[in-house]
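Good morning C.,

I know you're traveling, so I'll keep this short. The sequence:
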Amino acid sequence: MPLFKTDPTAPPKPPKTKSREWADSLIFAIVAATLIRWATFEAYTIPSPSMEASLLVGDYLFVSKLHYGPITPQTPLQVPLTHQTVWGTGLKSYSELIQLPTYRLPGFSEIKRNDVVVFHVPHETQYPADLRTNYIKRCVAVAGDTLEIRDGKVFLNGKPGETPPGLQTTYFMQVDSPNDEVLAALRSQGVVEYEAPGGIPQAVPGPTPGSYGYTISCTQATADYFKKQPYVKALTVLQPQVQLFPDVADFHGSAAMSATPRNWSLDSYGPLPIPKKGQVITLSPANAAIYYKIVARYEHNEGITWQDGMIYQNGKMLTSYTIKQNYYMMMGDNRHNSEDSRFWGFVPEDHVVGKAVLIWLSMDPNADFWHKIRWSRLFNIIH
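The tokens, ready to paste straight into the viewer:
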């Protein structure tokens, strides 16, 4: 039995015009592409050297959202209000921002250690999570782990972690004399300074008067090569002297600082426990800075303030807290040239976009036209 009856005497609907057909097709294509991009795969490019040499500047990637599951939009919806609603509530606007719950659809994989992950950077608090800058880093620790870095090497739960094959360290390479032989060797070893003209490393004064050398980021194999060269006088590990998380409790967000400084460095960091959903934390001045942003921002609690090294809610000191979602530590493979979790702390699970799976194109920004494409990197699986 039909659900609706039609009037046989009604005139037939006029056929769609060509412009209407084109408009409908365009709208369908836009909606389909948006859904595919949101739920399956999205293309990204690498703009900075923080993941070198695993990923290079100019690599074009496909990021899978199927692995961990696509996540619902986190931008508040602007809902129109009726005139009566506005009149009855005293609101001065005809619209209201509604924050819907965030939900991740099922994926076929969990976030695992050593996955290369795209996520919304946590510290851009002026925007909703899904409107923030997207970062790509390696997941070095998952919820429930305890992370420690000793002499630049990652340890998880007291045991050595896996070392990525492209892991880089920054060195000052002091040479007898900066010349074409040294530059040719740097070029042959794939050492690049992206901010310099043509990507060619520039000689700078060394630690002693009259000495010169190069600040380079390279793999251990490349460092071992240069140590054997007669023109290299010294190869010294460099790392910036900066204050890190959790001494800096709220990176770029506020002046909140830990009441118990740890003075960790990029190569000597931790031990730091990674929060897990359902975990009950006893808060004290010794650890409150670790959990401040979780309580104040990531888990959307109201009335949170930071006073004298402790977390307060509506003027009352919090002495315990139950974690509402899983968290992760993300680090770049270019370990001394990466602003990552060592600076701003944990990445919440609801900030994770997807897993980087494939390099489909790679363009060398410093090469000439005939050598622009890095053919050997095309369609490489990302590890």
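Safe travels,
E.
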